[in-house]
């Protein structure tokens, strides 16, 4: 995550309560140009920390031990996902936000945040994507699927896309991703077709006038109607699907990194893990299919050696090399 340059706290902040110091930090973060979504994420993390140490506790009493105690609680008790599991990615980002706050207060000696494990929530097959497209109820269903599965957009990027971002003549779109970073993406054939028939709006008018939750619900509904397990389908899985399909079709990793907007190519390399399954399937297709039975050379005619295959049936050492 790119670090923003935040104005250092005034001396009086150190005499405030934790809750008041959190508000001062968020004000400084907003002044640095942080987006509303970034501020919301920081607030959730810092409120979690403040609740643990006590919102009215003086900042001057905070120490490294408080951070370690909070981190231990986070790992064991939360945040909790919808199926009861712990969201390790959320814990990872919470630690970054809280460390940033404490360092802003001048608290040093904090241990480095734990290395985030590379995680991959899976991808759909392209046949499944086509099945979902075949169940589209309107043009917006098709457009949403295409932008995520054919161009790799995040759901929130679809929400924020405006008509001024679209260049149909070039088949491109300008996308504002995480932390305000912009990138160009190539529009898929389906998206180009849909956008060419939709009535265009003003430059600042959103193309898809839906909330994130509405897009989420549409994707789930499309999966259900296509007969796909709904539990494995959500908007971000379509982005994963774009990435893995692009690699399968021969796109280079650096180009994919640029299209996805990843700052570090190691993030993009996560998608190579799924391709390992392709390698395994290809191997099994080539070598594990039923073949003509093979047998170990018998010690005497008619005897197989423990049933393990080695020589073709009818081919034993000393023969001419022709099968019988």
Write the layout of secondary structure elements.
Elements: H1 18-31, H2 36-53, H3 64-77, H4 88-104, H5 126-134, H6 139-149, H7 155-160, E1 166-167, E2 172-176, E3 182-186, H8 189-197, H9 212-225, H10 235-248, H11 253-260, H12 265-268, H13 272-287, E4 294-295, E5 311-312
Antiparallel strand pairs: 1-2, 2-3, 4-5
Structural description of this entry:
It is a single chain. The chain has 3 domains: 94 residues, DNA polymerase, domain 1, CATH 1.10.150; 156 residues, Intergrase catalytic core (hpI Integrase, Chain A, Orthogonal Bundle); 35 residues, no CATH class. By secondary structure, the protein is mainly alpha-helical. The chain has 13 helices and 5 strands. The C terminus is likely disordered. It starts with 17 loop residues before the first helix and ends in a 12-residue tail after the last strand. The strands form 2 sheets. It has a 3-stranded antiparallel β-sheet with strand order 1-2-3. α3 packs antiparallel against α4.
């Amino acid at each position: 995550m790119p670090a923003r340059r935040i104005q250092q706290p005034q001396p009086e902040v150190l005499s405030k309560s934790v809750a008041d110091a959190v508000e001062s930090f968020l004000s400084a973060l907003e002044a640095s140009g942080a987006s509303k979504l970034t501020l919301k994420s920081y607030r959730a993390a810092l409120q979690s920390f403040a609740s643990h140490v006590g919102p009215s506790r003086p900042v001057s009493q905070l120490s490294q031990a408080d951070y370690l105690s909070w981190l231990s609680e986070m790992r064991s008790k939360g945040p909790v996902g919808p199926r009861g599991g712990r969201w390790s990615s959320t814990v990872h980002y919470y630690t970054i936000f809280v460390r940033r706050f404490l360092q802003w207060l001048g608290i040093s000696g904090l241990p480095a945040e734990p290395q985030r494990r590379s995680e991959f929530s899976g991808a759909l097959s392209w046949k499944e994507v086509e099945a979902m497209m075949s169940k589209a109820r309107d043009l917006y269903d098709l457009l949403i699927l295409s932008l995520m599965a054919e161009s790799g957009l995040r759901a929130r990027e679809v929400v924020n896309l405006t008509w001024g971002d679209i260049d149909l003549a070039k088949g491109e779109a300008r996308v504002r991703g995480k932390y305000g970073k912009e990138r160009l993406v190539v529009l898929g054939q389906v998206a180009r077709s849909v956008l060419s028939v939709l009535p265009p709006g003003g430059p600042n008018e959103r193309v898809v006038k839906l909330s994130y939750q509405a897009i989420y619900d549409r994707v789930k509904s499309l999966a259900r109607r296509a007969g796909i397990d709904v539990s494995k389908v959500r908007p971000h899985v379509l982005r994963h699907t774009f990435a893995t399909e692009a690699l399968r079709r021969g796109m280079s990793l650096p180009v994919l990194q640029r299209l996805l907007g990843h700052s570090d190519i190691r993030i993009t390399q996560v998608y190579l893990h799924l391709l390992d399954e392709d390698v395994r399937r290809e191997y099994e297709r080539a070598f594990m299919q039923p073949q003509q039975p093979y047998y170990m050379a018998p010690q005497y005619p008619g005897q197989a050696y423990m049933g393990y295959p080695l020589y073709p049936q009818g081919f034993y050492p000393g023969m001419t090399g022709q099968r019988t």
